[in-house]
Amino acid sequence: MRIRLDQVRLEPFYWQETASISAGSLERPELTDLSPVQWQGQVRFAEPGFYLKARYEYEQSLTCNRCLKSMVEPVSGEVELMVRVAPPRSLQGEHELEETD
Q1: What φ, ψ does residue 67 adopt, rounded to 5°?
Q2: Distances (CA, A) of 81 to 17, 29, 41, 44, 64
Q3: Which residue of 50, 61, 66, 74 has the lowest C-beta tally within 10 Å?
């Protein structure tokens, strides 16, 4: 999903999405299966950047390391993140190179 931050400056962006992730790609041997992850949240402009608040839910199937029985565990949580946007650098005149340049 892509979010156009120039549009978020005018009004908050709300979304609801389902993402599928392979249990094998997470490199957790006890994890045998993973349901699709349900995401919903919003991004809004908040000086000096953007504020993201989201909620997620999914179920994971695990194998117990002691008894080797399978169990299904519901997982849910919230994410809050403040993203600060760096001001554009002036390319006129002399400037010092950054490590990322």
Answers
A1: -100, -10
A2: 18, 30, 11, 11, 33
A3: 66
